[in-house]
Fold:
Amino acid sequence: MPHTSNLLRLQRTIQIHGKRAYHDHVILPNRKSVVSNGPPGYSAVTGHVVTVFGCTGFLGRYLVSKLARQGTQVIIPYRDEDEKRHLKPMGDLGQIVPMEWDIRNENQIAECVRHSDIVFNLVGRDYETKNFDFRSVHADGAERIARIAAQSGVPRLVHVSHLNASATSKSKFYQTKAEGEELVKAAFDGATIIRPGPLYGYEDKLLNNMAIWPIWWKLNNAKTKTRPVHVMDVAQVLANLVSSPQLARTLALPGPSTLTYEYLLDLVQSLTFQPPSRAPVIPKPVAMVVAKAAQLPWWPLLSPDEVERRYVDDADTPGDWDLVGVTPSEIEQHAITYVRRYRSAENFNRPNVFPPRPAVSSRLPFCMNLIN
Structure:
């Protein structure tokens, strides 16, 4: 009998949530009517169709997951068949729609955005190749997506840039990010520009890299200032934009605290119970020579532009988190989740040990007792 009662309660809940109400009906800026229906969660139907360029990347996978679990149909453009396989189970049947594309093929881009209510452009490269330099991806490619989205009548475009985007930066990566922002705003009226700080998470190139190759984070004596932000926080911001009013502006999303690479190295070593790295501090000219030699193999290694970025402090820009309804997390709250794998077997379950924070590093109140 209790089992039957639970089934009846579940059926009644589904029936109640399955009914359509006035608030389920949304009129988009292009006058398209969107009606949500079905039970809440994975099997819901929000009525929205979203295209996520760069969905196979670090940030993209978490955005697709958050959108799909809300019942949004997600178009996932891909280049390599194997790179998008992990995205398919993130949504219910028919909610994840893979489409092959090339950033230089305008017909494929148009096909990917033709039914979408909002387009996210998360495409980016950390290093240059013989086929794609920074400008072709961050500037030309971004402009092409924005222009075709506008021509296709897409109501909204969200372009993800970087906190340090600047036309006067010594880094080509940051220069082309800034150039791409201007081209996107010229091609798509009312575009939303997102500027997140350095991201950390399971597949990041920050904490994981520090645990494996700490020597390359000692450049500039590890004094470079950084404002790392949790990838899940940024993904949540992007997911919130689907149902929020259009924000035709630039949103800065830095981490809640300004830290140094020195502190982050200490944090990783403390959490993994590894001895301090004895690697020397390499002078910048030597690091540049090594980075140029590292371009000979076909697989990605340290690039000269990455060396340049190790000497660039993150922009001291106020965050716009209050506009998007998300409170960013401190890195100490999540770091152990991502670096525990680097502990030895005998230390795997030991209590966490945190290094003392520099007195000037915190931008938001931080309590180590809450973390411990």
In short: The radius of gyration is 22 Å. The chain is about 35% helix and 15% strand. Confidence is low (pLDDT under 50) at residues 7-18, 364-372.
